[in-house]
Structure formats: structure tokens, C-alpha cells
Design goal:
Blueprint: H1 5-30, H2 32-88, H3 93-176, H4 179-192, E1 196-200, E2 203-204, H5 213-221, E3 228-229, E4 236-239
Helix pairs in contact: 1-3, 2-3
Keywords: Coiled coil
InterPro entries: CT398_CC_hairpin (IPR056003), Oxidative_Scav/Glycosyltrans (IPR052376), Zf-RING_7 (IPR003743)
Protein name: C4-type zinc ribbon domain-containing protein
Length: 242
């Protein structure tokens, strides 16, 4: 294939644009900011789960406390009724004795319930502290995720700007080059990642490998408009006289 030497030199500009586009794409795929977002999302999910667990524990204890409150109130109501019956003197001696025994039983039952009530209320208070802590952790995790997303989106915006600008630049370069030369260049770039490189000394600018003397003499001896390629990587070797 033959192509004007100036057009071949323009391939180096195209290769530079494509290299920057490739770096942008690699940056998009491997950006640590995305990893930070994913880690923050996992942290937020864990915090959400912890809040649910703490809420459930506190809700269970709230029900237990309410249940004990009702039971204690029922015992106190029974005690009040029995004392009123004894104070009224409207019961027989045997009934009075039975009421005394029942009051003693009720007092013991109330003592047990109140002790249990106190224990559950202490656990309820501790569960409330736990929920407050987990809620704070959740709030921090939410902020961490928002910050990570903002940083990632900022980087993505920069990458997008680069891709748009270089994409437009690439279109302009392609419009200036022969179709067959661009077709060959794109084919080689798709195969090895680099379609063209500058010959600097005895080194190919695409693969960075040194050429042997025979290959170098062949390339240097080719006509200026001859499109020559590197034997190592297959890329177009652009001769600029350097």
C-alpha cells in the first residue's frame, strides 16, 4: 500500500488520540472511585441491616415491657379489690383468711413481675442506645456513599469530556486521511491495540522493540510513500526522519 508521507505522519496524531481514548476507557473500567462507591454501598447495606436488627430488638422489648405493665397492673387491681373486701368487713372469717393468703401470693407475684419488669426495662434502654448508635452509623454510611458517588461522578464527567473531545478530534483526523489507510490502521489497532508508531532510531514506536539491521535497512530503503509495517507487532511504521 502507498500513502502520502504527510498522511502517514498524521497517523501518529490519530494514534495519540486513540491512545488517550484507550486510557480513558481503561480508567472508566478500573477507576478506584467506582470501587469506593461499591464498598460504600456494601457499608450502607450492612448499616441498614444493623438498624433493622436493632429496631426489631427494641420493638420486641417494647412489647415485653407493655405485657409486663399489663400483668403488674392486673395484680395490683386484684390486690386493691382484696384489701377493699377485707377493710369493708363484709366477708366471713374463712373468706378473710383466704383473701389474706391470696394477697400474700399476689404480693409475691407482683414482686417477681416488677423485678422482671425492671430487668426488661434496662434491656429496653440498652436496646434504645444500640438503635441510636446504629442509626448514627447508618447516617455516616449514607454520607460516605454520597461523597463517594460525587467523586466518582466527577471523574466520570472528566472521562466523558475527554472522550467527547478526543472523539471529535478523531473524526476530524479520519476525514483528512485516505480511507484505505484508515481501514488498515483500524484493523491493526483492533488486533494489537496500536495501529501505528513512529520509527525512532531502530525502535518501533508501537511495540517499543528494537528492529534488527536487515529489517531496519528494508524500512529505511522503502519509498517515502510506501506504507511499511513492523515485523514484530505488525503496526504501520511511520518514518519521520528522527
Amino acid at each position: 500500500m502507498k500513502a502520502d508521507p504527510a498522511a502517514q505522519r498524521r497517523l501518529l496524531d490519530l494514534a495519540g488520540v486513540d491512545a488517550e481514548l484507550a486510557r480513558a476507557e481503561h480508567r472508566r473500567r478500573t477507576m478506584p472511585e467506582q470501587t469506593a462507591v461499591e464498598e460504600a454501598e456494601r457499608g450502607l447495606r450492612a448499616a441498614q441491616d444493623a438498624v433493622v436488627v436493632a429496631q426489631t430488638a427494641l420493638s420486641d422489648l417494647d412489647r415485653d415491657v407493655a405485657k409486663l405493665d399489663r400483668e403488674v397492673e392486673q395484680v395490683r387491681t386484684r390486690e386493691t379489690r382484696d384489701r377493699q373486701l377485707l377493710e369493708n368487713g363484709s366477708v366471713s372469717a374463712k373468706q378473710a383468711s383466704d383473701l389474706q393468703h391470696e394477697l400474700q401470693s399476689l404480693e409475691r407475684r407482683r414482686a417477681v413481675l416488677e423485678e422482671e419488669q425492671l430487668e426488661v426495662m434496662e434491656r429496653q434502654e440498652a436496646a434504645g442506645v444500640d438503635l441510636q448508635h446504629e442509626t448514627g452509623v447508618h447516617a455516616e454510611a449514607t454520607t460516605t456513599l454520597a461523597d463517594a458517588v460525587e467523586r466518582r461522578d466527577g471523574v466520570l464527567g472528566d472521562i466523558g469530556t475527554t472522550e467527547v473531545r478526543r472523539g471529535e478530534e478523531r473524526k476530524g483526523l479520519i476525514a483528512e486521511l485516505p480511507d484505505d489507510l484508515v481501514e488498515l490502521y483500524d484493523k491493526l489497532r483492533a488486533r494489537s491495540g496500536t495501529g501505528a508508531g513512529e520509527l525512532t532510531g531502530n525502535r518501533c514506536g508501537a511495540c517499543r522493540l528494537e528492529m534488527d539491521r536487515a529489517e531496519l535497512r528494508t524500512i529505511q530503503g522503502a519509498a517515502p510513500d510506501e506504507v511499511v509495517r513492523c515485523e514484530n507487532c505488525g503496526a504501520i511504521v511511520v518514518r519521520t526522519g528522527k
